[in-house]
Amino acid sequence: MKYSVELACDSSKAWLDTVMDDFGSFLQDHADCERKASAMAMSFVAKYPNRKEIIPELIETAIEELEHFQQVYNLMERKGIALPSEMQKDVYMQQLMALTHGGTPDTRFRDRLLMASIVECRGCERFKLVSEHIEDEELSRFYKVLWASEAKHGNIFVKMALKYFENKEVYDRLDELIQKEAEIVSALPLRPALH
C-alpha cells in the first residue's frame, strides 16, 4: 500500500532565491510553522477523541513538531534572530484549508488528514532544497535531518486516513487535493517563508 505523496509541482527557483536572500525571516516563519504543526496534530485529538486508533501517533507527531520548534528556536538564538512579535497570515494554509470545508463531518476529517499529509510533503520538499543550497554547514545538516522527518509525517497522515476510508476514496481525493495544492503554491506571492 502506498502512503507517500507525490506533489504535482516543484517549488520554484525564485522561491528558493527569495529564501536565501533573507534567511533570518525564513527561520522566523519556519519556527512559527513548526509551532502550528504541533497544534494541528493536537487539534485532531481534541476534535476527534473517538478516533482512538490514531491518537497515539497524533500525540507523538505533536511532540516531534514541538521539538522541531525548539530546535529552530535554539538555532535562531545562536544566530541572534528573535521570534517575531507578529507573524503574517499564511495564505497558502488558508487556501488549502478552504478546500476542506463543506461536506459531512467524515469527509472533512478525511480531507484534513490528507491536507496535513500534503503540507508535510511540501515542507519536506522545501527543506530538502534548502539543505542542498545553503552554504552554512550547520543549517545544511539541520535541514537535511528535518526533511527526512517531514517525509515520515506526510506518510503518517495518509496511513491514518486509510484506517477509516476505502483506498479508492482516499487516493482519488488525495489526487484532487494534490492538483489544487499545485495551483495554490504556483500562484503564491514570493516571500522568505516556508509557504
SSE inventory with pairings:
Layout: H1 13-21, H2 23-47, H3 55-78, H4 91-98, H5 105-133, H6 137-164, H7 167-187
What is the strand content?
A: under 5%
Helical content class: over 70%
- Order of SSEs, N→C? HHHHHHH
Number of strands: 0
CATH class: Mainly Alpha
Can you say what the CATH homologous superfamily is? Ferritin, core subunit, four-helix bundle
What is the third-level CATH name, the topology? Ferritin
User: Total number of helical segments?
Assistant: 7
**Mean pLDDT figure:** 93
CATH architecture: Up-down Bundle
- Uncertain ranges: none
Basic shape:
globular
Task: Please provide a written account of the structure.
- The chain has 195 residues and is mostly helical.
- It has one domain: Up-down Bundle (Ferritin).
- Helix content is 74%, strand content 0%.
- It contains 7 helices and no strands.
- The protein is globular.
- The two termini are 29 Å apart.
Main attributes?
195 residues, mainly alpha, Ferritin, globular
Produce a short descriptive summary.
This protein has 195 residues and is mainly α.
